[in-house]
Amino acid sequence: MRVVIQRVQKADVTINGQEKRAIGQGLVVLLGIESADDKTDVEWLVNKVVNLRIFNDAAGVMNLSLLDIKGALMVVSQFTLMAATKKGNRPSYIRAANHEHAVPLYNYFLSLAQQQMDSKVISGTFAADMQVALINDGPVTIQIDSKNRE
Predict the structure, then answer these.
(1) Which one from 25, 55, 78, 109 is the annotated catalytic residue?
(2) Which of 4, 59, 94, 97 could crosslink 101 through cysteines, CB 3.0-4.6 Å?
(3) Cα(91)–Cα(84) distance, integer angstroms
(4) Is 78 a catalytic residue?
(5) Which DSSP letter does residue 143 get?
């Protein structure tokens, strides 16, 4: 399971050109799920995301987590994070999980995140056409892979 985390001042996602969901200060998480992922990957990643100390404290040092600042969380599924680009110029998505495997893990991610947070958790719609707009604060962008727990 891979995530790209962006610290944002605000963000929104438009789903199928119609519905728009938005957050203020917080994190946008692009979530890629592969066939080998399971609930332990979700549990580890949710804990990592909500406790990642990447928000500034009073001294301007990145020392606060999403929980500390009571920030919002937007989670958007993104199978392209599982792209393999070693051969040729056309990415392969063979490692990306199919819907039957990915949707329950995506929903579990959302559920666990909401349980840990007092603030807003919103999501895109799995496999929908989405446009994400955000103001990256910092900019701060971090990628994490649950199979490479550094």
Answers:
(1) 78
(2) 97
(3) 6
(4) yes
(5) E
Start-end of H helices in the chain: 39-51, 66-69, 99-116
Given the residues 6, 25, 79, 109, the one annotated as active site: 79
Residue 120 is predicted with a pLDDT of 85
pLDDT tens string 39-60: 999 999 999 999 999 999 999 9
Strands 26-32 and 72-77: parallel
Residue 113, burial from CB neighbour count under 10 angstroms (0-12, 13-18, 19+):
buried
8 A C-beta contact, residue 42 and residue 109: yes
143 is annotated as an active-site residue? no
Query: Phi, psi at residue 56, to the nearest 5°?
Result: -70, 140
- Which member of 9, 80, 131, 141 is catalytic? 80
| CATH code matching the domain that covers 2-143, chosen among 3.30.365.10, 3.30.450.20, 3.50.80.10, 3.40.50.960 | 3.50.80.10
Most distant CA pair in the chain, distance: 48
126 catalytic, yes or no?
no
